[in-house]
């Protein structure tokens, strides 16, 4: 199976051309809706028309704070039809996190699925941003004109999906030539993808249409994804892997994207069989949980997909063995990427090899790699050092944040990833660790300082340090070490409740441990290495 020729222009032109080739073929599916390529194009065009009626213009930002669904894809593609920029928000984000991202990008519209798993997104947002506004739905977000709810009835502050689409009654003419009229060209921004920095402040990674098309055309070809493939969308569409290696790769190849909003291992095993899934991608946690369900007798209609794709953290050869032996998936691909590299740097060719050698992967064509020491000098082959990336896939920068951009990308165009890797003799990169303090829980980055800021605001906490420690299921988990204010006692329950109220769930520490003092480096800073070692001793 082969992906089609590289399409120039934008994500929207990819969809239009796919609809011409595969009009009656299923394109996107979820538990509520099923759309062919022709139906998806028509639905996205209608959404673009409704956005225009709501005052959205080329270059304006449109945000999505909702789980995976057909409608998520329809809204994103509809925004692309008029040249608007899509701002995905993680469904696990709290109100304050979402408010900061919406404020930074000055988003005009926000789409939500209120009450998803009991989460009231619009209420959380209002609570964090000044309540209801007089001229808009949220007081402290004056640029936000509407909040549209995918599935619920309207109220005084929310627009229903039906109400929103009703504005599309007037026809709209669109010139489909790239960069003309409302439609975007290859150099226009497609997404502002949220990530965090060492300070814990949210940053928006700029991703352009041309980058996306080239990266995921090349990736789909390398993986052998074609029109007969059906890709299971478990990884959130707010994540670069879920959005681009999932939905975009599907559109480029003419396959079908099957959206999963809530991951339940036993149900997912059954869905894989029912929907004839051929490509299963996600972080190691996904495969670990599916294997646990399979061992517990929850196979249902499960039939092994032909291809497994995993990454998002360091991957072990033992995990690859289990994917092959337990899940029965013969072809396995590992790879490496960052949001700042349009999601992908390296990817192996599909292989049944699950040895330690399979953990390394070559870069995409046109992507350069360096591994350097602390002074920035290249290290010898086989020696660990910081990974630097340069190429068409590297972001042009963080959205309206030149200082953060300059700190991450040097004048020669090299992105300093903060990851530690080893380059093999044949140019394959293997990731072994991270230079920074970042750790990854279930495929999501956690930045210790963000958690520390929340914990340090507790009156009884004098000092705090958060580290990531290995976890068999999630890859890593957070442990917080706190030093109480002299004469006071900290409540672990209160500290965890504080984190749950202010942070996405994956950022909440798995444990809070009280110490009389933190171990320190010669500089006086807390020694995170010593704290990780302490956590390891406690786990034995």
TrEMBL record:
Alphabetic keyword roster: Ligase
Q: Does the keyword Nucleus apply?
A: no
For this chain, one GO molecular function annotation is: acid-thiol ligase activity
All copies of the AMP-binding enzyme C-terminal domain together span: 450-525
Name of the protein: Acyl-CoA synthetase (AMP-forming)/AMP-acid ligase II
SUPFAM superfamilies (alphabetical): Acetyl-CoA synthetase-like
Does the keyword Ligase feature in the UniProt annotation? Answer: yes
AMP-dependent synthetase/ligase domain boundaries: 17-399
């Amino acid at each position: 199976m082969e992906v089609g020729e590289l399409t120039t222009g934008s994500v929207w032109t990819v969809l239009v051309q796919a609809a011409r080739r595969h009009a009656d073929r299923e394109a996107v599916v979820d538990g509520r809706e099923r759309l062919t390529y022709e139906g998806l194009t028509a639905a996205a065009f209608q959404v673009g028309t409704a956005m225009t009626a709501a005052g959205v213009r080329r270059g304006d930002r449109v945000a999505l704070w909702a789980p995976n669904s057909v409608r998520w894809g329809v809204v994103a593609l509809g925004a692309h039809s008029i040249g608007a920029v899509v701002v995905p928000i993680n469904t696990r984000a709290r109100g304050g996190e979402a408010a900061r991202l919406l404020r930074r990008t000055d988003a005009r519209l926000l789409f939500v699925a209120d009450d998803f798993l009991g989460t009231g997104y619009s209420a959380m947002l209002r609570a964090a941003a000044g309540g209801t506004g007089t001229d808009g739905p949220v007081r402290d977000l004056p640029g936000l004109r509407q909040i549209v709810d995918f599935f619920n009835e309207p109220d005084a502050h929310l627009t229903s999906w039906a109400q929103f689409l009703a504005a599309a009654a007037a026809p709209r003419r669109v010139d489909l030539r790239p960069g003309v009229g409302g439609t975007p060209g290859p150099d226009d921004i497609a997404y502002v993808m949220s990530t965090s920095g060492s300070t814990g402040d949210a940053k928006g990674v700029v991703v352009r249409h041309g980058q996306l098309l080239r990266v995921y055309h090349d990736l789909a070809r390398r993986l052998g994804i074609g029109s007969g493939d059906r890709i299971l969308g478990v990884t959130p569409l707010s994540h670069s892997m879920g959005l681009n290696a999932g939905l975009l790769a599907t559109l480029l190849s003419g396959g079908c994207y099957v959206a999963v909003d809530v991951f339940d291992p036993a149900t997912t095993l059954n869905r894989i069989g029912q929907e004839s899934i051929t490509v299963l991608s996600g972080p190691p946690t996904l495969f670990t949980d599916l294997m646990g369900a399979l061992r517990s007798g929850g196979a249902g209609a499960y039939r092994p997909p032909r291809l497994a794709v995993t990454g998002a953290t360091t991957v072990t050869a033992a995990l690859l063995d289990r994917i092959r032996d337990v899940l029965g998936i013969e072809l396995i691909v590992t790879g490496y990427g960052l949001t700042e590299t349009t999601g992908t740097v390296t990817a192996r060719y599909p292989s049944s090899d699950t040895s330690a050698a399979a953990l390394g992967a070559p870069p995409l064509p046109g992507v350069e790699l360096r591994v350097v020491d602390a002074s920035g000098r290249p290290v010898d082959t086989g020696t660990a050092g910081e990974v630097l990336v340069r190429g068409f896939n590297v972001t042009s920068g963080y959205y309206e944040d030149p200082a953060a951009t300059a700190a991450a990308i040097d004048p020669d165009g090299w992105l300093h990833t903060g990851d530690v890797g080893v380059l093999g003799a044949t140019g394959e990169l293997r990731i072994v660790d991270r230079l920074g303090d970042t750790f990854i829980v279930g495929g999501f980055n956690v930045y210790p300082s963000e958690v520390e800021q929340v914990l340090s605001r507790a009156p009884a906490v004098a000092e705090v340090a958060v580290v990531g420690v290995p976890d068999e299921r999630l890859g890593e988990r957070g442990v917080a070490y706190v030093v109480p204010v002299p004469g006071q006692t900290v409540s672990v329950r209160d500290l965890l409740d504080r984190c749950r109220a202010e942070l996405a769930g994956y950022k909440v520490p798995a444990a809070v441990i009280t110490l009389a003092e933190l171990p320190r480096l010669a500089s006086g800073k807390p020694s995170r290495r010593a704290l990780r070692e302490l956590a390891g001793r406690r786990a034995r």
